[in-house]
Design goal:
Porin; mainly beta; 14-stranded antiparallel β-barrel; 58% strand
């Protein structure tokens, strides 16, 4: 069983590395700074509005607070992989646009190292830099003038930033645990702006930009958990990420060209900028605080508050201001009968949640807002703790149409496979 389990993990890891960076949901806001930031957490967390600071149990890898790793059973091994399907609808001045794609979401594993130490590692996307905006201007169109004549423009972005983490949780006392993650952030965002003029005697222009970011940071966490009469519990958690400078390679090339390919006039490089720096990109510190309470294996309620100092950040080549963000998340979970072997429906775990958040982008002095409604369920396999989890998320990203900022509606569904097995057990009989 363990050999088959390990083989499945290796295959899935290879597959997930192939999928990493394939996120293609088309948001024009991805053209600014680091692109669109991904919500972090397992599907249990996301379906409960995103709460995670105080979340812990024997088969949830709550990596946003590494203190939770002490919640693993002493002989267990947990593996979790998730995918999602997103549909984005853009709304502007009498214009609507939609796009759909499937994305890799996370790959996680965790297990105990002794009675008081838990270990976890994982790969999760941090941000998405994909967008494509195209426009054709002809005589009579808004923005047309005689000096430029007819032309077409295309603005394209690709790439993602990805987090690879490994961490450990330590049980300090019966009720208090602490943990630390070492997180590597890496990836490349590429952007291109192109203007093609219909007049063959006019130079067209293309700008290509590339931003590569690499570096390491530490995430810290602490949790308190207490059990009271008849299996009632109360958890509290705090996690913190310090601000950090990252190594950055920024390249920008501008060139002009005509339909007549004749060197050295077409194409002609106007400028070629290349900068390498260890302190030109600074990502902000972040604080997450949360509490959870409920009855073990029956119901759970929780709330998280997250604050990130994006106003103190700086991005090499970034072309939009950034503002501090605050997020409030709430979530509920209900399980009719977790270990029922006679009723499939009573084993289902039902979840619902919501989120109100600021977006880190500040465009035309206007900060974007986000509102989310989430839900989901987990189906536990019969005679097993392994489960399949599903979530739905509706997020409304709000700008100001009168100020030239569009609104977005994002509908996402996701599925993850959470595999739980007993390892490190010496078998008496084969």
């Amino acid at each position: 069983m363990q050999n088959k389990f390990l083989s499945l993990i290796i295959i899935v890891i290879i597959f997930s590395f192939h999928l990493n960076g394939q996120k293609l949901v088309n948001s024009p806001y991805a053209r600014f700074n680091l692109g669109v930031l991904n919500q972090q957490g397992t599907f249990r967390s996301i379906s409960m509005g995103g709460i995670s600071a105080a979340m812990r149990d024997n088969n949830t890898i709550s990596y946003t607070n590494p203190a939770s790793y002490t919640g693993f059973d002493t002989t267990s091994f947990v593996f979790d992989i998730g995918m999602d399907l997103s549909k984005l609808k853009l709304e502007g001045n009498n214009e609507n646009f939609s796009t759909t794609d499937m994305n890799f979401r996370h790959i996680l594993l965790g297990f105990p190292v002794g009675r008081r130490i838990g270990f976890a590692a994982g790969l999760v996307p941090y941000s998405n830099g994909y967008y494509y905006i195209a426009e054709k201007i002809i005589k009579g169109s808004p923005g047309w003038n005689e000096a430029t004549g007819d032309y077409s423009s295309a603005h394209k972005g690709t790439g993602t930033l990805t987090s690879l983490f490994t961490g450990a949780g330590f049980e300090i006392t019966k009720n208090i645990s602490a943990g630390i993650n070492l997180t590597a952030l890496f990836g490349t965002l590429e952007r291109q702006n192109q203007f093609d003029f219909s007049d063959q005697n006019t130079f067209s222009q293309k700008n290509k930009e590339s931003l590569n970011i690499t570096g390491f940071n530490l995430d810290y966490g602490i949790q308190y958990t207490g059990t009271y009469k008849k299996n009632y519990f109360f958890n509290a958690g705090i996690s913190f990420t310090a601000p950090k400078y990252y190594r950055t390679v920024h390249e920008l090339m501008k060139e002009r060209y005509t339909t007549y390919f004749y060197l050295p006039y077409s194409p002609d490089t106007l400028s070629n900028f290349n900068s390498k720096s260890s302190d030109s990109t600074r990502l902000p510190g972040s604080l997450r605080i949360g509490i959870m309470a409920g009855k073990k294996d029956k119901f759970t309620a929780g709330i998280d508050f997250v604050m990130t100092k994006w106003s103190k950040a700086k991005i090499q080549g970034g072309d939009a201001e950034m503002a501090d963000t605050r997020s409030l998340m709430i979530g509920l979970e209900y399980i009719p009968e977790k270990y029922s072997n006679t009723s499939f429906l009573r084993r289902i775990e039902y979840r619902i949640g919501g989120r109100i958040a600021d977006n880190y982008l500040l465009i035309n002095r206007i900060q974007l807002k986000e509102y989310s409604l989430t839900g989901g369920l987990a189906i536990r396999l019969k005679n097993s703790i392994s489960k399949a989890s599903f979530f739905v998320d509706y997020t409304r990203r709000v700008g100001d149409i009168s100020a030239g900022l569009h609104n977005e509606s994002i509908f996402t569904v996701g599925a993850s496979l959470n595999l739980y097995d007993f390892w490190f057990v010496k078998r008496k009989y084969e």
